[in-house]
TrEMBL record:
Classification via InterPro entries: Amidohydro-rel, Gln_synt_N_sf, Gln_synth/guanido_kin_cat_dom, Gln_synth_cat_dom, Metal_Hydrolase
Record protein name field: Glutamine synthetase
Short name of one Pfam family: Amidohydro_2
Span list, region Disordered: 437-482
One Gene Ontology biological process: glutamine biosynthetic process
Gene source species: Lojkania enalia
GO terms of molecular function: glutamine synthetase activity; hydrolase activity
Family: Belongs to the glutamine synthetase family.
Domain GS catalytic, first and last residues per copy: 599-924
Amino acid sequence: MNSLPSPPPPPPPPTLEQVCHVVNNYPIIDNHAHNLLLPTHLDTVPFETITTEAQGRALRDTFKSLPHLRAARQLRQLYELQDNADWDDVREQRIEWLRSAPERLYQKCFEGTHALLLDDGLTGPGKVYPYDHHDRYAKAPSKRIVRIETVAEQLMESILRDASEGDLRDESYLTDIWITFTEEFEREIQEAIQDTEVAGFKTVICYRTGLDIEPDYEIAAREVGDPFERYVERCIRKRKFRIQKKPLNDYLVLRALEVLSERLPHKEALSKPLQLHTGLGDNDIGLRESNPAYLQPLIENYSRIPFVLLHSAYPYTQEAGYLATVYKHVYLDVGEVFPMVSRDGQKTILRQALELTPGSKLLYSTDGHYFPETFWLANKQFREVWLEILLEYIEKEDITPHQAIAMTKDILFNNANSLYDLRYQADYQDLATEAPKPIAWHPKPDPPAETSGPLPSVPLFRSEGPTASPSQTPSFPPPPQSPQVYDLSVFEAFMQRNSEVKYVYVEWLDYMATIRARILPIKEFEGLIREGNRIGISQGNTGTLQNDGITPVVNPVGQIYVEPDLRSLRRTHRKDPLPSATVLSFWRDEAGNPIRECPRSNLEILVNDLKFNHGISLLIGFEIEVTFLKQSTSTTDHSPYMPLTQTHAWGTLTPEQWLHLPLLIEIADNLQETGIPLQQFHAESGPGQYEFVLPPLPPLLAIDTLIQARQMIAQIAATHNLRATLHPQPFPGIGTAAHAHISLDPPNRDIQFFVGGVLRHLAAICAFSMPERSSYARVKDDAWTGGTWVAWGTQNRETPLRRVRDGRWEVRCLDGLANMYFALSAIVGAGLLGVKSGENEFVEKDVNVNPSLLSESQRREFGVTEKMPTSVEEAMAALEEDEMLGTVLANGFVRDFLSMKRAEQEMLGKMGDEERRVWLIERY
């Protein structure tokens, strides 16, 4: 008889290493936080308030508090400073990061955050980002927490906007205002209940009149009349709308609770939660009245509304824990005390919270506000202290590792996910464990193995030695010896999709827009990024010409370090002889810092300045105009090239062109297969000339994609024995450009950016955007090439700047010989100058006709008084004279660029016209 199959062995119990991994890496639903400050308001709030509720003169003493000293030490790690750096060093490094790499700082501060629930009523909308802006820093969309006092105050400000003291003499006026206000307040609460973007509500009555709230709605409604009338009188006379009268504050909370209770689908259903500020606050709070014990009668009267007691209710944590224990609909949030309280205080607070409260009733939040560092410090300190407590409880056998893991997941994610009905899925990878070996099954488990020695007394994630598990990546490693910029998750995700890749082309664009490359086997490339290394090349390589000719800029002493930017990692096309990928790179110094010679870093700094200091984001879409050439068969023509097609005009599809569609389709298919979503392609005006339109992307990604797409087009053409050139005028007549469409978000400052900035520096910009002699042969009047006048016009293709619509412009004085990082840096830098000037009136008007057809007096009426440069020499002279543009670009960059261009022009000037044309065609 066949025996029954043996049951599978039970899974091994969790280890301490797994407990540490969960605590350090499990994603967080931050159930209470506030909006980040806009870049323009970062200096309006003292940075040292990140660890204290003190204000004014009391703030001076915070530098000697344990919370501040601990946070200052940890911020040195965040900013990659030496251990002996002081607070001034921290502030200076922070300012530098906000200037040069703000996005990196913000992303780093929100690592591990899955979602944010934001109380966006802390301050006015003109001071902070809107709540949904924060989506970019978390895995899941942010949700709102509606502050009921802010709703009420904004309503009253709107209702009484045009009111005067004379209105108070009308006997029915105050009654009418009460009816209007209560109806509008109820409507706002009802709409928020229905709004899927609203996760819950909040009251700050603790700050206003204390938590001793009248629990009976009917009594509160009877007592609110006179206080409301006095409040309205003050609003009209003093234009101050803050609600701080106990009967009125009590009524608002109770009315909100009544509305929340009214429309529940069945008797067991719970409403959206109400958060209450309890305990810890600034000196505006009455500390005795912030004790949540006052809330017990209110909690009993509204049993279908979840109450969330915020901020650990410190110093009343035990009282709050009791309420969360004995009432099913009460929860305790263990937030704000990280990083506002010392380490010992935090441990005491967590212990008190756990004295009675079940793990299923605890929530975590940062109370992060204004500065991203508040989120980072809170998360870091909570994980540290929570792990210390869990390890102690495990050592004393109060809980098992399995229970510690379950409790951690509940507090960080599951409890909030359930309470606020978010329905998110945790994005988390368990620590890899060795599969259990097959052994005989026994009905009774073996006794547990004895451990040798006590459990570790310090958090395991702080170990600086090698980890026992190569798959474990601690959330908070020790400060690196050099800046670590590689996001390994990007590489790992790429390799999962492209496991066949065996080589990587590590590429960079030099000053002359020549692609330089190193080819690394995938094993070497992976080792490079996992170890945080870079590729060293001679400093002199930054100063050579297209043929490695030496220029005065060449410095053979020293090194630069090529750092792959994994955001640009892309699979090569299917015709590449290697199973490979390409990646664009930064240039760094030995310490990993950006260097002034780096084309990509300089652009990124300018884009970040525009975005984080002025609130303007850019999208750029490029048009790739390319001419396909074949070997000439003419015996009389000395040119080695001739156009692929001759029967050719804009937008046509002649039989001759139709025969070459397989080439175009092959290019289009390969672009899209490698993740470049081509929008369209079509014939251009010149023989053999076509245009491929790329989608709008953020600036750095847009240029990286442009370079990779151009390279792909040229390589696929080469497999057909064709040359794909970007030369501005490969043959007399029709030219080839590289128009860029630039969109501003928000669009309302586009005139400042383009007219007040780009247009006024356009002659100097041309040194970057049209960098060769042939660039100027392309530009003519009446030829749709942007014309010869410094002007702008809506839908005017005879101006170098065409305004397509509000916020979207086309730069037409741009061709394929430009180093596009440099050209865009000059455009963004000039635009920044325009934005910073603050001007709103400009003499340069919207030109609705061809400027070349106007008389001098007519052009003057439009503010058109300057001609575009007619040669690269004129453009270089304009750049040299434009000191304002030079100051916004990297220090010394313009000098080096002009020195190299003059050396290049001297080299090209020694060639004949035909030799020079062929030389450029073969390189661009």
